[in-house]
From TrEMBL:
Key words of the record: Hydrolase
Start and end residues of each Beta-mannosidase-like galactose-binding domain: 68-136
Span of domain Glycoside hydrolase family 2 immunoglobulin-like beta-sandwich: 176-282
Source species of the chain: Noviherbaspirillum saxi
InterPro entries recorded: Beta-gal/glucu_dom_sf, Beta-mannosidase-like_N2, Galactose-bd-like_sf, GH, GH2_Domain-Containing, Glyco_hydro_2_cat, Ig-like_GH2
Single GO BP term: carbohydrate metabolic process
Family, per entry: Belongs to the glycosyl hydrolase 2 family.
Residue ranges annotated for the Glycoside hydrolase family 2 catalytic domain, each copy included: 286-573
Protein name: Glycoside hydrolase family 2
Gene Ontology molecular function: any one: hydrolase activity, hydrolyzing O-glycosyl compounds
């Protein structure tokens, strides 16, 4: 990841230092070492933040390894302030030492964490950070998403990711500092909810100043007293009234208007801390059977995105690669993505915010049902929602997918309880966005009803979801895999119906090196056949009045799954203009706009 890309784009400070780059590394499956004071035999140099399974890391070892160690040196001289050490994501359990002092421990492979390392630094300028990572490749009771538990990737699962896979960085902060911000748009009142959380030495007479701008225009300049380390306010903006003027301030994929924010922490009349942030004014909700964006029905045109790259796996090759993925999704005619079984890097969410792309965020699954698995999932999902809550691009939270980790929903009450509990917990943490309890089938507690249907025949799809078919008939039938759409006691109550997985047309135009057997749901043998099937399938789905939207599988080829619209290196399999026209169901000779 490029060192110039600030890793936490909604809370930016001037003084920070990237620790990405060359680290010492060794596997330790036998757990021979217990502390950095032990003489550790370093076997590799590794390029952080790329996982050791990836070629870009310089290690490229995809075997089974239960544990590993990292070590690096950095220079910093504390000058009376605090120094924080941040990790974007480490899979799965990490223990961190600085200069031999244990500074933090974290469990969860997809959420961020940090440590205040000030007391471990001492007087010297050169320091050592050591990280122990434990990640059992065979443990199916931890959230692991698409990481395979078999040695060779099979079916719809991919190579594992061990250890550090997002940015590592240092940050200087004052003794008393702004720890966290939380932005909540309130579209109905043209208000922005602002919550500031202060950490460190909590002095009396602290206050925060919040300035919100749209371009050069000042929208708010407010001052709030900090009470108990927190400040909570709704900031009312002047409502322009008429839609044309209102739309200039509203965020949408078509007009991704962001509001720049400066937040200053004061102690009496002295400035203590300054950060830059951004927010947006937009609303997402459900009205009868329609998904609503900014108070209007909005048809979702999503693409399923696994978020893998050939040489870097779950890690992004660079910040530019993240931006390009957002641009390519828009260039292919989609207004959003469903990030599948991955919690994406905050830099991706930044580009989705900045360029205008809706995001469904989905909790990576575990594949065994145990109390430990649910405990892990609740803890990590809670951290993820807290981290990503303020991104305007995120419009839906998805707790479970296709009953993974809860396989007996039709017969075991505990499995049902888990889905319903995660649904209500998510709604508790965030009441402003729709939540899907279990996507695909066997739905119970949910705000949207997602259907997965990989029938490759457009005419059968057209007949199955035609205007002649009532919702009662639809929900009385079985879907692929012999699954029911809703559980007993949870009939369809009018929620929007979205075809959240379909397509999966395999066209191995440029198979990934080393992949022996490509896989998909249906097959095309030429550009012409691929475009013909895709065009007809999207025509059917776009015109089905039953649907409030769709999510096509998938964005790019991912290892053995050659069913992407793009190859693994993000080369379009068809001209982008043709994909755009088909996605948007633009008839021949109609005017359209596309581009990246």
């Amino acid at each position: 990841m490029a060192d110039t890309a600030y890793p936490r784009p909604q809370l930016v400070r001037e003084h920070w230092q990237s620790l990405n780059g060359q680290w010492k590394f060794t596997f330790d499956s036998e757990k021979k070492y217990t502390h950095p004071s032990n003489p550790i035999q370093w076997t590799h140099d590794i390029t952080v933040p790329f996982p050791p399974e990836s070629q870009a890391s310089g290690v490229g070892d995809r075997g089974f390894h239960r544990a590993c160690w990292y070590q690096n040196e950095f220079d910093i001289v504390p000058q009376g302030e605090r120094v924080l050490l941040h990790f974007g994501a480490v899979d799965y359990r990490a223990v961190v030492w600085v200069n031999g002092h244990r500074v933090t421990e974290h469990e969860g492979g997809h959420s961020s964490f940090y440590a205040d390392i000030t007391n471990a630094l001492g007087e010297q300028s050169r320091h050592t950070v050591t990280v122990f990572v434990e990640d059992d490749p065979l443990d199916l009771a931890k959230p692991r998403g698409k990481q395979d538990w078999q040695l060779e990737p099979h079916s719809i699962w991919y190579p594992r990711t061990t250890g550090i896979w997002q940015a590592v960085w240092l940050e200087r902060v004052p003794r008393t500092y702004i720890q966290r911000l939380r932005w909540t748009p309130h579209f109905e009142g043209f208000e922005i909810g602002c919550e500031a959380f202060i950490a460190g030495d909590l002095e009396d007479d602290l206050s925060v100043e919040v300035k919100i701008r749209h371009g050069q225009k000042m929208l708010a300049d407010d001052h709030y007293k900090v009470i108990g380390g927190e400040a909570h306010r709704k900031i009312a903006l002047s409502d322009p009234g008429i839609d044309d003027s209102r739309n200039e301030l509203l965020w949408s994929p078509e007009h991704p208007t962001l509001l720049d924010v400066d937040v200053t922490l004061w102690h009496e009349d002295q400035v203590i801390d300054k950060i830059k942030s951004y927010t947006a004014l937009r609303s997402v909700n459900i009205n009868r059977d329609r998904f609503m964006l900014n108070g209007r029905p909005y048809h979702l045109k999503l693409v399923l995105d696994q978020g893998y790259w050939p040489d870097t796996l779950l890690s992004a090759p660079s910040d530019a690669a993240l931006r390009k993925d957002v641009e390519l999704a828009k260039a292919m005619g989609f207004n959003g993505v469903r990030k599948h079984q991955k919690i994406e890097d905050p830099r991706y969410l930044y580009w989705a915010d900045r360029l205008g792309l809706l995001v469904w965020e989905e909790m990576p699954s575990s594949y065994r049902f145990t109390p430990q698995a649910i405990n892990r999932m609740v803890r990590e999902w809670s951290e993820v929602i807290e981290r990503d809550y303020s991104h305007p691009c995120i419009i839906v939270w998805v707790a479970f997918n296709e009953s993974w980790g809860v396989p007996n929903l039709t017969s075991t009450q505990a499995h049902r309880n888990a889905v319903e509990a995660l649904y209500h917990l998510t709604r508790t943490f965030d009441s402003t966005r729709p939540v899907i309890g279990n996507d695909g089938w066997e739905a119970s507690a949910t705000d949207l009803l997602g259907i997965h249907d990989y029938d490759g025949d457009p005419e059968r799809i057209a007949a199955r979801y035609s205007s002649k078919v009532t919702t009662q008939e639809l929900f009385d039938r079985r879907r692929p895999g012999g699954r029911i759409l809703t559980l007993d006691g949870y009939p369809h109550r009018g929620q929007p119906i979205i075809l959240t997985e379909f397509g999966g047309i395999t066209y191995a135009k440029q198979p990934e090196p080393g992949v022996k057997n490509v896989w998909g749901y249906s097959l095309a043998d030429s550009d012409q056949e691929f475009l013909s099937i895709y065009r007809r399938l999207l025509e059917v789905i776009n015109e089905a009045p039953m649907f409030s939207g769709f999510c096509y599988t998938q964005f790019a080829d991912t290892f053995q799954e050659a069913n992407g619209l793009l190859t693994a290196d993000r080369s379009p399999k068809l001209p982008l203009s043709d994909i755009y026209a088909a996605t948007r169901n633009v008839k021949p000779n109609a005017k359209m706009q596309y581009g990246i």
